[in-house]
Amino acid sequence: MNLLEVNELTIQTATRQIVKRISFSVEPGNWLAIVGQSGSGKSMSTSAIGQLLAPNLKAGGEILFNGSNLLEMSSKKLNTIRGKQIAYIFQDYQNSFTPFMTIGKHFDEYQRNHLQLSKAQRLQNRQQALASVGLGDEYAERFPFQLSGGQLQRTAIALALLLKPALVIADEPTTALDSISSYQILQLLARLQKETGCAILHITHDLRHAANYADHVLVMKDGDILEQGNRSQIMEFPRHSYTKTLLEAIPSLGQAEE
Ligand SMILES: Nc1ncnc2c1ncn2[C@@H]1O[C@H](COP(=O)(O)OP(=O)(O)OP(=O)(O)O)[C@@H](O)[C@H]1O
């Protein structure tokens, strides 16, 4: 069974249909990249999964997670799934943190909200989680503003993976980072995906990222899916002219080195 199955999802305001009957699925442990230019409806589609849409937006269709329709689920039930089984990593990682709360306190609160563990167990989990993203436990004493962008996004990843979710939704997780930090973040996600077996739904406007990491790629434009398929299908035999344009925009290795 698919972990996530999106069937004919529509998202609209009172006057405008933004996402137009799109369907896609994610298998357990798979990496699906959703690629498309700004405004194509990528973030909106993935926000609908966790019932995170703005109040003026209405979603229709079905979003099945392990067979249950998330669009019809009570917010109380969804709260038990979000974080624990479905975790988000956002582009604006700064907003994922409370400014005057230490990193350690973030880990503690997150576990207390979702699990019943002793203080010693929570501490051990925090140490392991920080270590898994290459940060020593001394970072627990720091406040978010005392970390670099890359360190903070690594911490956000450690938090997102803390409860071993089956699905991680990473919405442009590297956009705010320089290219070296971006590379490290994606490498880190790929390693943690292998270690934990989670599936990743990765939103990116950069087809290079999809080329390097995704098992499947879905191309969106103006609220519609233009094409989707496994990575080599899309990268080597794109059918749509828009996908070809995105591919042509990737600098060749020679150009990139220059
Ligand atoms: N609450 C809202 N009400 C009305 N329109 C909205 C709302 N939020 C976003 N939009 C519009 O919906 C469209 C899709 O937005 P969305 O954020 O999903 O795009 P995106 O593909 O993720 O773009 P980006 O790569 O820039 O994040 C855009 O035209 C956006 O302006």
What does this molecule look like?
This is ABC transporter ATP-binding protein. Keywords: ATP-binding, Cell inner membrane, Cell membrane, Membrane, Nucleotide-binding, Translocase, Transport. Belongs to the ABC transporter superfamily. It is a peripheral membrane protein. A hairpin with a 2-residue loop joins strand 4 (about 60-65) and strand 5 (about 70). This protein is α/β, with parallel strands linked by helices and about 260 residues long. The model has no long low-confidence stretch (mean pLDDT about 90). About 40% of the residues lie in helices and about 25% in strands. The chain has one domain (about 5-255): Rossmann fold (3-Layer(aba) Sandwich). The chain contains ten helices and ten strands. The longest helix has 18 residues, at about 180-195. Helix 3 crosses helix 4 (about 120-130) and helix 5 (about 150-160) packs parallel to helix 6. It has a six-stranded mixed β-sheet with strand order 6-7-8-3-9-10, sandwiched between helices. A four-stranded antiparallel β-sheet has the order 2-1-4-5, covered by helices on one side. The structure holds adenosine-5'-triphosphate (ATP). Adenosine-5'-triphosphate binds next to helix 1.
